[in-house]
Amino acid sequence: MNPDVLDLARLQFALTAGGHFLFVALTLGLATVVAVVQTVATIGQKPLHARMVRFWGQLYVINYAVGIVTGIVMEFQFGMSWSGLTHYAGNVFGASLAVETIVAFFVESTFLGLWIFGWHRFNRWVHLAMIWVVTLTAYLSAYWILVSNGFLNNPVGHRAEGGKLVLDDPVAVLTNPSALMAFGHILAGALLTAGFFVAGVSAYHLFRRTPEWEFFGRSLRIGVFLSFPALMVTAVFGGIQFGALRTLQPMKSAVFSQKTAEIAQLQADMVARFGPGDYVPSEAWTRGGGLVMLVCFGLMMYLTFAGVILACFKKVVFRFRLWHLTLMAAVPLPYVAMISGWIFREAGRQPWVVYGLLKTEDAVSDLSPGSMRASLIVFTTLFGLLVVLNAWLLARWARRGPVDAGLGQDERDGPGDRDAADSLPATSY
Length: 429
Description:
By secondary structure, the chain is mainly alpha-helical. The protein is built from 16 helices and 4 strands.
């Protein structure tokens, strides 16, 4: 395999998978926030809660719509750039990817469409059920993706047949510890991302002394009170995963801990088992990603702990402008933590794409450097544009506030007519 092709293919997948991950984190978290707020609005039938559903739901839909395009584009890479992987292990990990596609595109997207266009058409309880179906199918989608990723990190439930891997024990694949631990970690991290996002947007409006002070005061509290427990759960699952590395991927654990003697011993053992080669992952990426993640965790721990205390005082929520600035500046922290954690997880298993079974260099398609370079340019440019577009749309709608949120507007509402919106029956949202 041409080393240039290998490096370009790895760079392309890292950039596109990482870019898609940014969308997934906020989508999962915001879907849960919107579903819970709509549940409160459906039970209590208060106009303020209904408007919160519409505003945060608008931002969720924007992030989902752009993010799903990145997911479609990213999946092309498996066939284009990683044919060796699909040929060797596609019979095992490809099934979960197929199920994820069905869940995401057919179930989740269908019910999301019904939820978007269902205002003023469905009973409020039916409409509420739709957003919960969307949320739960989003969780299922994340689970199936992590089943595939968990198999790559800890291949179980398979047997070799004709030079390929075939499914031997579906239960072992579905209950893979590498997948289940990551699933809990990702879901909690997604809620953390949404908490920081909701708090940051709310702080922006409170900092500007918005007339929607009650709306964003309550939203800020939702974000703050969600972030702290989400951070703790994320840390628990992260700690469990790190402890499991000693058994599942001891080389990654040794590199992160800088245990030189252990690294040398593991390298010698793997050479004896798999033949000549360098089995030590990049310390810069592996240890660097892990350290950045831990630094972000430390910063978020102080911010969320202080935030829970500060949010208990109404005057602080509405008037503490330095805190508002801090919350706005902190919005990127969960993103940085999750991306660096993903780098630690993926870079740390190199040189394996299927740990202990298939090396990354053997999984790359037989492409010319020119073709791979052109593919990298096209994919990276497209993803860059989508990320910029999503950021611009989110910022644009977030700045407008709930008055101009178009989601769920009834035909008799004028754009930005708060009084008309509040006069609607609660069943209409």
